[in-house]
Design a protein that fits this description.
disordered N terminus; globular; 7-stranded mixed sheet
Length: 731
């Protein structure tokens, strides 16, 4: 049976996410009609999810190199040098569409997949983080989605034995039918032991190890490359099923193989399963791959070559082994009671050949699947309504400052996440020295004084109003989060969550956001070392906000100098580092208290942002600070209240002032490049001198102490009452 240009109907092409023109191009390149297995392989490798056919030309704008970069984009994960011979490996990816129809399984397997990306590089996973978006929590289905996703993340991470140390959750109407579930993982390795995914050496064996192969996840990559609609429930079989206990065994076995130098290359089976893993290792190694799917261990009867090649069953790894080492490899996998089957061989053909016993099911040059991906170049343009929304004036305030503060603290986007992160094991492995709930988590590197700070950050509302500015702010905000702990920002991983790029306004959003991120990364010296693109986040034609998410890693030379967000000692002085402007556009105050998403996002001066980081890092290094909290959602008033609630001690900050600013702007504007700090009274002159040295403004606001939160002349609220509002989670 063949599947040529004149045979394949529109329904079949839609199933593999190929257009008619793309399919005709594949036939032209092959010089013949395609077999059904070849059709599935082209569909997977040319999908948006695997081929990045819309985004790859844009991603070249990112800076990807730097003095600390050991591995940039192109491998399973990025890696940076963190000193004393250690490397940190990290990456963030999405599992949005699967989580929209099976929230528990979708989120759990998202965690499992990103963990495999880390230990495939030879690194031991030491932490996971997440970035989640849902529709308003007053709707039952959104609460069901959120509950399933949170449980899936916790169940997989807790069972696997990796701490979930940080993340973020936001709620907006646009995510009601298309939640975002981004998972980030971080690993640690001696830098000389980094493993790459490559198939080299003619005659070397191709082994499939780990779980048996089933029918779950077939067409998962193509499912992630189309819009959701009323028929998406039919895609439920495209959602994978995870087993964290099995993955733990697989990790231990793979790391033992690397430690004993028994493998040439290693690649996890993620999107498109055996297809993408075989293509990637063969192409990177400049080799050919000959597979016999009849040798693949299966857990279901009657599976054909098409299903075996496209299954996304979890907890599987492809490894390249020299023949003389096969026996030693088998011993390792028997030790962990795992399958280790020889399913093929590396050759010099430059082709992917798929056989089922004696029958050839596919024979494709690897360059066609990787280098000949038909890139799309849509036209981009903002909608006139978007530009008008950015210029729209905000309505007059109707709440008093105390009323606004209480409403903001209790809003879904600002209330405490303690009820969520307490469901995760965030202390397993005993590396976590700053726990979830602050600006960033901090993890020690045992045997050294060093540590890393990690966080995720993004603001879809800013990006909806101005994608370039909003994306740059996402980078700056993530950098401020790690600076607030005393760590220096080192590199980022990103997940670009956008709608259907075939719409001019969505492609414009994507292009503008990439430019904004690239500009901020260059200015702050934080290269992009890994990442993921998730497009077609649309449901029945309606797109999500443009939602780039930044995963930031910072390096701390002395973990003993780390800082936390909460006030600590009565009598300490509270200072604002940075300046406040009349910038309420796109803010949480505008949405929650004024009922609008409008106005221009806050301005970002990247040179000022960099100098502000340097001032705070210098003050931290000189041990001038007791606490440090970056200012973001909700502005200065929320930062003061959060620092008091996190520390469990009040504060009197009556010294707030600003020329020609309204009370609402002074308290709730989300101006960038600002930190709230506390210090001993004797250190105030030295701290202000540090700020002056870097050309950064500073202002004494008041003192720590008491059982109330006092902000300017307008706000004086009992700390206990604010905490009761803040800690009240969603039922």
């Amino acid at each position: 049976m063949t599947a040529g240009a004149g045979v394949v109907d529109a329904k079949v092409l839609a199933e593999v996410a190929l257009t008619r023109a793309e399919y005709d191009r594949a036939v032209e390149l092959m010089g013949r009609e395609l077999t059904p297995v070849e059709l599935g392989i082209f569909g997977a490798m040319w999908s948006e999810h695997c081929g990045y056919k819309t985004s790859k030309p844009l991603l070249k704008r990112f800076p990807t190199s730097g003095p600390l970069v050991l591995q940039g984009p192109g491998e399973n994960a990025g890696a940076i040098d963190v000193g004393e011979g250690w490397a940190v490996v990290f990456k963030i990816e999405s599992h949005n569409h699967p989580s929209a129809i099976e929230p528990h399984a979708g989120a759990a397997t998202g965690v499992g997949g990103i963990l495999r990306d880390i230990f495939t590089m030879g690194a031991f996973p030491i932490a996971t983080l997440d970035s989640l978006r849902f529709g308003p929590p007053d709707e039952a289905r959104n609460r069901w989605l959120m509950g399933g996703v949170i449980a899936g993340i916790g169940d997989y991470g807790n069972c696997f034995g990796v701490p979930t140390v940080g993340g973020e959750i936001y709620f907006e109407d646009c995510y009601t039918d298309n939640p975002l579930v981004n998972a980030m993982a971080v690993g640690l390795i001696r830098k000389e032991r980094l493993m790459r995914a490559t198939a080299e050496g003619q005659g070397n064996l191709v082994m499939l190890v780990g779980a048996d192969t089933g029918r779950d996840g077939i067409h998962g990559a193509t499912f992630a490359s189309v819009e959701l609609d009323a028929a998406s429930e039919e895609r439920r079989p495209a959602v994978q099923v995870g087993n964290p206990f099995l993955e733990k065994l697989l990790m231990e076995a793979c790391l033992e193989l690397i430690d004993q130098e028994l493998v040439v290359g290693m690649q996890d089976l993620g999107a498109a399963g055996l297809t993408s893993s075989a293509v990637e290792v063969g192409h990177k190694g400049g080799s050919g791959i000959d597979l016999d799917v009849s040798e693949v261990a299966r857990r279901e009867q009657g599976m054909g070559a098409y299903e075996v090649m496209l299954s996304e069953s979890q907890e599987r790894m492809l490894i390249i082994v020299e023949p003389e080492r096969q026996a030693a490899v088998n011993r390792v996998f028997r030790k962990y009671d795992l399958h280790a089957d020889v399913i093929g061989e590396v050759n010099g053909s430059g082709r992917l050949t798929v056989r089922d016993g004696d029958r050839v099911e596919a024979d494709i040059p690897l360059t066609l699947l990787v280098d000949q991906v038909p890139f799309r170049h849509p036209t981009g343009a903002p909608s006139p309504g978007r530009l008008a929304l950015r210029a729209q004036a905000l309505p007059a305030p109707t709440l008093t400052p105390p009323e606004a503060l209480r409403r903001l603290i209790g809003s879904p986007n600002l209330r405490s996440r303690r009820a969520v992160w307490r469901t995760y094991d965030h202390m397993v492995q005993n590396n976590t020295v700053i726990r979830p709930g602050g600006d960033a988590a901090v993890l020690r590197i045992k045997g050294t004084r060093r540590a890393i700070a990690v966080c995720t950050d993004g603001n879809g509302r800013y990006c909806w109003l101005d994608p370039r500015a909003g994306a740059a702010i996402a980078v700056a905000e993530a950098a401020r989060n790690v600076v607030a702990t005393g760590a220096r920002p080192a590199a980022i991983t990103d997940c670009l969550n956008f709608g259907n790029p075939e719409k001019p306004e969505v492609f414009w959003e994507l292009s503008e956001a990439v430019d904004g991120m690239a500009e901020a990364c260059r200015a702050l010296s934080v290269p992009v070392v890994s990442g993921n693109v998730s497009l077609y986040n649309d449901t029945s034609g309606s797109s999500i906000y443009p939602s780039p998410v930044v995963g930031m890693v910072g390096v701390m030379e002395d973990v003993g100098k780390r800082l936390t967000a909460g006030f600590k000692t009565g009598g300490d002085m509270v200072l604002l580092i940075g300046e406040t402007g009349d910038e309420l556009g796109g803010s949480e105050y505008a949405k929650t208290c004024l009922g609008v998403v409008a106005g221009a996002p806050p301005r970002l001066d990247l040179d000022l942002e960099r100098r502000t980081h340097e001032a705070v890092l210098a003050a931290a290094d000189e041990e001038l600070l007791r606490s440090c909290h970056d200012l973001s959602d909700g502005g200065l008033a929320i930062a003061i209240a959060e620092s008091a609630m996190i520390g469990g001690i009040g504060a009197s900050c009556r010294g707030i002032s600003g020329d020609r600013l309204s009370t609402e702007a002074l308290l709730f504007a989300e101006s960038q490049s600002r930190f709230l700090v506390s210090c001993e009274a004797k250190n105030v002159p030295a701290l202000r001198n540090v700020c002056k040295r870097f050309g950064v403004a500073s202002q004494v606001l008041g003192t720590v102490g008491g059982d109330r939160v006092e902000i300017g002349p307008q706000v004086a609220e009992p700390l206990a009452e604010l905490m009761a509002i803040w800690e009240r989670w969603i039922d």
